[in-house]
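Structure in, sequence out. Go:
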């Protein structure tokens, strides 16, 4: 409730309603089930998913590389265990994201990024550990590519020059008002394609991104550590439609670049409101 006073005159009491402090679903990463013998899904069987991984693509030729682990920061339940590894014919970064894996396209993936959301958190907080392996898998699939996510032009030589350098993990959050994209007759927030010939990744400079924060870490963090990311609101007069949270054990995993053995453990993720 509020009143306005000016020049000795006070208005009557007025009311307004704030947006709810909506929590982040399954930010504990406790809920998983195994589909078949090797596909780990980050939600309970029979329930609707909020998070997903690239496991559905990885398990076409190997085992899941994004799995639950009992080594968690809270002492009970599970954490997400995101491992970068070579799976028979291709490098795969361990990853988890708010959205859904739609289809395996050869050895590539088509994904939907984002889930419905309309609140205004100020921070993303989580616990994490990280082992950075040396990059030993520079890509051979991209001769050149514009890297929307990082706002620079990447060519094959630059990717090859990453070999021998420390790998980096990345965690980021974006609140957006994307208009949505159609795939197979249905509307999804944002479609990701990793096939090199039709690469379509997230553009973090897109004007539809209302707020954003990220962490990139390129060295080992051996003990559970709490990280708090402050959301930078680029627009304060628009309401989000979607929330996107992504965690990956290899920053350039979308380009199949990274170090075999890079491992990101993440747990106890939550949104904070002030």
């Amino acid at each position: 409730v509020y009143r306005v006073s000016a020049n000795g005159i006070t208005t009557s009491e007025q009311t307004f309603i704030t947006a709810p402090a909506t929590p982040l679903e399954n930010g504990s990463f406790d809920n998983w089930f195994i589909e078949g013998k090797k596909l780990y899904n980050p939600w309970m069987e029979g329930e609707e998913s909020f998070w997903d991984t690239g496991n559905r693509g990885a398990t076409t030729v190997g085992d899941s590389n994004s799995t639950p682990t009992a080594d968690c920061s809270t002492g009970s339940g599970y954490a997400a265990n995101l491992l970068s590894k070579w799976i028979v014919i291709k490098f795969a970064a361990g990853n988890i994201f708010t959205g859904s894996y739609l289809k395996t396209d050869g050895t590539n993936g088509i994904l939907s990024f984002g889930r419905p959301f309309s609140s205004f958190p100020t921070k993303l907080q989580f616990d994490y550990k990280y082992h950075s392996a040396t990059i030993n898998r520079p890509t051979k699939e991209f001769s050149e590519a514009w890297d929307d996510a990082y706002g620079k032009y990447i060519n094959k030589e630059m990717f090859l020059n990453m070999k021998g350098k420390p790998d980096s993990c990345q965690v980021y959050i974006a609140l957006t008002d994307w208009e949505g994209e159609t795939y197979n007759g249905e509307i999804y927030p944002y479609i990701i394609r990793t096939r090199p010939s039709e690469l379509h990744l997230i553009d973090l400079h897109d004007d539809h991104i209302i707020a954003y924060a990220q962490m990139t870490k390129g060295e080992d963090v051996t003990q559970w550590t709490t990280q708090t990311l402050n959301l930078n609101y680029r627009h304060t007069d628009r309401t989000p439609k979607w929330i996107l949270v992504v965690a990956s054990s290899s920053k350039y995993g979308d380009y199949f670049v990274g170090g075999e053995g890079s491992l990101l453990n993440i747990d106890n993720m939550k949104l904070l409101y002030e």
